Amino acid sequence: MTTWLNMSLQDGASPIMEQLIFFHDHTLMIMLMIITTVMYMMTTLLWNKHTSRFMLEGQLIETTWTIAPAIILVFIAMPSLRLLYLMDEIHNPTMTLKAVGHQWYWSYEYSDFTKLEFDSYMIPQEENQASTFRLLDTDNRIVLPMNSPIRLVVTAADVLHSWTIPSLGVKTDATPGRLNQVSFSINHPGILYGQCSEICGANHSFMPITIESVSANHFITLSLKPKSIIS
Hints:
Keywords: Copper, Electron transport, Magnesium, Membrane, Metal-binding, Mitochondrion, Mitochondrion inner membrane, Respiratory chain, Translocase, Transmembrane, Transmembrane helix, Transport. It comes from Reticulitermes speratus. GO terms for molecular function: copper ion binding; cytochrome-c oxidase activity; oxidoreductase activity. Its cofactor is Cu cation. The protein is α+β, with helices and mostly antiparallel strands. It has 2 domains: 63 residues, no CATH class; 130 residues, Cupredoxins -  blue copper proteins (Immunoglobulin-like), CATH 2.60.40.420. 31% of the residues lie in helices and 26% in strands. The protein contains 3 helices and 10 strands; from the N terminus they run ααββββββββββα. The strands form 2 sheets. Strands 3-2-1-5-8 form a 5-stranded mixed sheet, with no helix packed on it. Strands 4-10-9-6-7 form a 5-stranded mixed sheet. A hairpin with a 2-residue loop joins strand 1 and strand 2. The chain is elongated and about 85 Å long.
C-alpha cells in the first residue's frame, strides 16, 4: 500500500508487477543515459570556441543520430512487448472470481467452489477503527489463495468502472454488457488495496477494493464453509 512520501512504485505482490517494476527501472536508466549525453553535448557546444566555415555537411553524424535512436527504441520495445503478452496469458487458472461494478460498490461471485455472491461497500468514515484505513477498507473483503493462478472476470451493471489493484499490476475496465478477463497470482499473504480508476459518478472515490491473501490450505478450509470466505 502507498504511504506518505513514497515517491517510488508500490512493492510488487505478483510476478507481473515485479516485472513491470523491472521494466520501469530499465526504461529510466535508458532515459538517464540519453539525458546525460544530450546535456553533455549542449554544454560542450555552449562553452567551446571552435568554429569551421567549411563544414557544410556531416553524413557520418547524421547517419549516427538516425540509427542510434532506433536501436534505443528496440531495447525499450522488446521487453515491453514481452510484458504485454505475459499480461494477456491465462495460465490454467485454479479458480475464477467475477467482479461486477455498481454505482458505487462492487459485487463479487465465487463460482468454482460454491455459488457465493456478496456486495462489498466502503466502510463509512464514522465507523472507521484504528485497524482500518480511511477510504480503502471494505465491509466484505475478497479472500484469495496465494501462489495460485486466478482468473478475474470483470463487468459493470450501470456505467464504466475500472477494477484496479496497483500492487498486483492489474487494471481492467468494467464495461456494461461486456466481460473482460485478466489473470494474476499473489506472491505472499497479506491485505492488498485498490480503487475504481474510472470516473463513474459522484461517489467514484468511494468504491475501494480489498483483497485478503491467505495460504491455499486455509482457503480450502474456508471454502468448506462458504459464508466464512466473506471476511
